[in-house]
Write a structure and sequence with these properties.
Elements: H1 2-17, E1 22-26, E2 29-33, H2 55-58, H3 71-81, H4 87-104, H5 115-131, H6 137-149, H7 155-168, H8 180-192
Antiparallel strand pairs: 1-2
Length: about 200
């Protein structure tokens, strides 16, 4: 499969080298290659399920080194976009808790403490902030982090997570949310199905 892609990419690159719009034969089909066409490959080494590019395909591209994004600024700006005011201190705490979870909790295949998980927490915190407008911003962040992480932790890691939380948020308690309606709905459904 990749050898076919290599020959197709090489054909397109040869057309691009001519410097103007050019017709190119790819798999017995004539296509017009626009002179401003660009081809890019993003590699994420070490990411589960990914493999290295074969040398003949990799040689067609120029490598460019990338650096890891600055989580703090991404978190701070995302919190601003969600309407938070205490973005500086909350961003530090969010980044710190995720760094600590990555370092101190056990290694499980289903754990994710990267940017995708952080973004999910930030989006959840925005929803919580809009739903419970009277909650303190720190309490909103606490609720979002706990709601998004606790269900996936194994029992041993829950204790470690709670200790990390107490260190990072010493004066705050997890907000109690009224789940009476949910509880009654679950009980009604169980009774209706004779469970």
């Amino acid at each position: 499969m990749l050898s076919v892609i290599t020959s197709q990419v090489a054909g397109i690159m040869n057309c691009l080298k001519k410097g103007h719009n050019e017709q190119c034969n790819i798999n017995d089909k004539i296509i017009l290659v626009h002179k401003d066409t660009g081809l890019f490959i993003t590699m994420n080494p070490g990411y589960a399920g990914r493999s290295e590019l074969p040398d003949n395909l990799a040689n067609l591209f120029r490598p460019v080194a990338m650096m890891a994004p600055n989580f703090f600024f991404i978190v701070k700006i995302t919190l601003m976009s969600e309407g938070f005011k205490q973005t500086e201190s909350l961003a530090k705490k969010v980044v710190t808790i995720y760094e600590l979870m990555l370092k101190q909790l056990s290694k499980q295949d289903h754990y994710d403490f990267g940017m995708r998980a952080v973004k999910s927490v930030l989006n959840a915190s925005g929803r919580i902030k809009r739903q419970y407008a009277d909650l303190d911003e720190t309490t909103v962040i606490i609720k979002a982090i706990r709601d998004m992480n606790l269900p996936k932790f194994i029992a041993e890691d829950v204790v470690l997570f709670d200790n990390l939380f107490m260190d990072l948020f010493p004066d705050c308690e997890e907000p109690q949310v009224n789940t009476d309606v949910l509880q009654l709905g679950i009980e009604d459904t169980l009774n209706a199905h004779k469970l």
